[in-house]
Amino acid sequence: MMLKISICDDDARDRELIAGNLRIYAEEHREYGILFDTYSSAFEMLDAFEKKGGPDIALLDICMPGMLGTELARDILRCSESTDIIFLTNSSDYAVDAFSIHAADYIRKPYTQEKFNDSLDRVIARRRERTWILLPTEGEVHRIALEDILYVETRDKCRVFFLTSGEERMTRLSSARLQEYLPEDRGMVACGVSYIVNLRHVRCFSGMDLVMDNNVRIPVPRRLRTRIKQAYFDFYLKEAES
């Protein structure tokens, strides 16, 4: 396993402090093969992102001149859905905004090495548990975590993947290949011929439709309502037991 981690903080002292925390963590966890780089501005990091691709984990300050760390995170996630974002900041004012973009963690400065280590431990553990798929789109192939898919909608011959980042990815996968990519035993359930939903992102089941985490309502055909309801309860029972 190798992890690419990027640090972005406009304060030189804080930037070096975070780098020092990461060096200690990397020394204690050599099995992860951690490589990292540092940036003094959001624009510098985005420029490197365009040239080298996105990191596995981004450690971002929020209050930076020119562009807030939350906006930087959105730009990163538009092109790299698999990047985990950890905010390290002096302010608690942006917590709601940070978690609205599904930040992996929000750490208030000053923090301890133990707090830093615990955060990375949790994020890396979740990354290791993820199921990844390679999704072919027009001229590109995207690496997407199954857990980051909200639902898939069929439009004519196309499949549109709606992601937790708010992004959409369109592909022309066949029905057979789609079933291989999105197995039911991983919480992916077909709602008729038009939708496949990720049960981990269902907020509630009203009886006639599924309300997703992004508030979209997915209609459930009458003939499937009992089956979908049972699948919903079975999934969360299994999650609770694990």
From TrEMBL:
Keywords: DNA-binding, Phosphoprotein. SMART domains: LytTR (SM00850), REC (SM00448). GO terms for molecular function: DNA binding; phosphorelay response regulator activity. The modification 4-aspartylphosphate is found at residue 61. PROSITE patterns: RESPONSE_REGULATORY. It holds the Pfam family LytTR. InterPro entries: CheY-like_superfamily (IPR011006), LytR-like (IPR046947), LytTR_DNA-bd_dom (IPR007492), Sig_transdc_resp-reg_receiver (IPR001789). It comes from the Bacteria. Residues 4-124 form the Response regulatory domain. May play the central regulatory role in sporulation. It may be an element of the effector pathway responsible for the activation of sporulation genes in response to nutritional stress. Spo0A may act in concert with spo0H (a sigma factor) to control the expression of some genes that are critical to the sporulation process. This is Stage 0 sporulation protein A homolog. It comes from Candidatus Mediterraneibacter quadrami.
